[in-house]
Give the backbone structure.
Amino acid sequence: MNNSPVPSVAVRAVPADARPLDVREAREWVAGHAPKAQHLPMSELTARLDEIPADQEPLYVICRSGGRSARVVEYLVAQGYPVVNVDGGMQAWVEAGLPLVCDGPGQPEVV
């Protein structure tokens, strides 16, 4: 964890069996995401709180670069959820050589 007021971890500290909560928008998700991730766009979060996995502690929240996910983590921590932000987001994920899959044609990428 770092000294930020938002709990966060480096991408390499995310356990291999974790199912990150990806809060990017639909077109970003389709282009490329972590294989085990769950998609819940930040723009829909408050309306879909019941979809946040309750079986993971902590829950790793990820976006493209870490900004949106940090805001989501800040909100969810205030609601009592055990969540942490993934520093650097999907950009750091790819830079670390971690797997990426896509829902559309072509090669997976972070957009």
Summary: The mean pLDDT is 94. The radius of gyration is 13 Å. The domain at 8-95 is CATH 3.40.250.10 (Oxidized Rhodanese; domain 1).
